[in-house]
Amino acid sequence: MCHVIVTCRSMLWTLLSIVVAFAELIAFMSADWLIGKAKPSSSEDVDNVTGGSQEPYHPTLGIYGRCTRISHMQLSRRDTLCGPYAENFSEIASGFWQATAIFLAMGIMILCTVAFVSVFTMCVQSIMKKSIFNVCGLLQGIAGLFLILGLILYPAGWGCQKAISYCGPYASAYKLGDCSLGWAFYTAIGGTVLTFICAVFSAQAEIATSSDKVQEEIEEGKNLICLL
């Protein structure tokens, strides 16, 4: 018989697991990993209201995507074009970024799987006599290691030609040159930290759902058990 068990700690772990998976996925897909050096506005980029030129803009570069400004696109004065610069995996600008993409993708796949499974832990607390919380916590720890490897390798690719074109000639491995780090990189770091927090907190979720009070309510015949 399925017993729906909802506790404060198990719900918090489930929500954190979902948030972490989405945060890492959004960061991976974003082009805002590196913010390039300012590009001066062209003489064609004139503000119709003030008559003055627009502020310089900063192109952005991700692991496999980029955002840049295109002037005079048909009816618009200017437009920002975002999309992948690499049509396939081999066209990613650096071998280090290719490794980063692999490790991050593996970590994110594990996190998305755990996030999906975590929704069902209210009804299923064990699988093959193993606590599903402990199994998910172990998987989150493994995912965190993949994410760390990816984030360590990512700065090693700052010396590639693609990064130099955005960050200037002084850019090299682990040196940003004229670039700065974008929100996607910081989101990936924050998500990695939360991944390990989730891995540790899964043990608390398991303790909460297998406590003596929960067992007492199960013995009383309750199918829906909600505990703070």
Automatic annotation (TrEMBL):
Membrane topology, as annotated, equals: Multi-pass membrane protein
The record's section on PANTHER family has:
LHFPL TETRASPAN SUBFAMILY MEMBER 2 PROTEIN, LIPOMA HMGIC FUSION PARTNER-LIKE PROTEIN
The transmembrane residues are 12-35, 96-120, 132-154, 183-203
Q: What is the official name of this protein in its record?
A: LHPL2 protein
Q: Which UniProt keywords apply?
A: Fertilization, Membrane, Transmembrane, Transmembrane helix
Family according to the record: Belongs to the LHFP family.
User: What Gene Ontology biological process does one annotation of this record name?
Assistant: single fertilization
Q: What is the lineage of its organism?
A: Eukaryota, Metazoa, Chordata, Craniata, Vertebrata
Tell me what gene encodes this: Lhfpl2
Q: Where in the cell is it found?
A: Membrane
Mainly localized where? membrane
Q: Which InterPro entries match?
A: LHFPL (IPR019372)
